[in-house]
Specification:
The chain is mostly helical. It has one domain. It is about 80% helix and about 0% strand.
Length: about 240
């Protein structure tokens, strides 16, 4: 439930659920794929909760979704063929960079606008590529994928943080979904654990949407930073 709530408001819910699964004796890769499958329903409930903020953004979100889906498939395949710890060393760096971008996003957006480089309403090629790469990361590991997407979309779209968060929920949910489908076909999933995660995540997604949509932008930005710093600490300290 906590993971579903945090995923909807910010992202990084994986860092709550992933350590729990191997603690019950499951192998690391099995724990990772089980966690991904279990969190999919929570992403769906969170995205539905943000449906008002998605109005007027569906066409753009659809284009970005194509990049996310392609990235999610790529990341899921990489998880199955690469060593389990291949990305772990650089994950804290990704999160730290994303946090810097989230904090500085208003100033960076103003600076880009002053240089005549305002975000395009339909999302340009650079945003599409960045969303694809975030999808690769999300399909492979997923921790703090939401923070990466918030940083990318915050700079790349001419929208406020709440409307960006709505798009983030859809894209992150699709990455988890397509990765989960790949895992269902070719990997071993602990379905009992996945079901328990799913039930909690759905409830958390509803809670997260109700809480997140009411947060002032400054507070939401602060929550993103706190969650991101906590994620870095957990990954670095083990």
């Amino acid at each position: 439930m906590a993971a579903g709530t945090i995923n909807t408001v910010v992202g990084s819910g994986t860092l709550i659920t992933f350590p729990v699964v191997p603690a019950f004796g499951y192998a690391p890769v099995t724990a990772n794929v089980t966690n991904t499958v279990g969190l999919v329903p929570g992403s769906a409930s969170g995205a539905y909760g943000y449906r008002d903020e998605l109005r007027g953004q569906w066409r753009r979100t659809g284009r970005l979704a194509c990049a996310s889906l392609a990235g999610g498939v790529t990341g899921a395949v990489l998880l199955l063929v690469l060593p389990a710890a291949a990305f772990k060393a650089i994950v804290p760096v990704f999160i730290a960079l994303a946090l810097v971008l989230v904090v500085l996003q208003p100033r960076l957006s103003a600076w880009l606008a002053a240089r005549g480089q305002e975000p395009t309403p339909h999302a340009g090629r650079a945003v599409m590529l960045a969303v694809y790469l975030a999808g690769v990361y999300g399909g492979y590991f997923g921790a703090a994928q939401g923070i990466l997407l918030l940083a990318i979309l915050g700079l790349g779209l001419p929208e406020g943080l709440q409307r960006v968060n709505a798009v983030k929920n859809v894209l992150a949910g699709l990455v988890n979904l397509v990765a989960a489908l790949v895992f269902v076909l070719v990997a071993h999933i602990a379905w009992d654990a996945a079901l328990l995660i799913a039930l909690g995540a759905v409830c958390g997604g509803v809670i997260g949407a109700r809480v997140g949509r009411r947060l002032p932008v400054a507070v939401l930005r602060g929550v993103i930073v706190v969650v991101g710093v906590s994620a870095i600490g957990q990954l670095v300290l083990g």
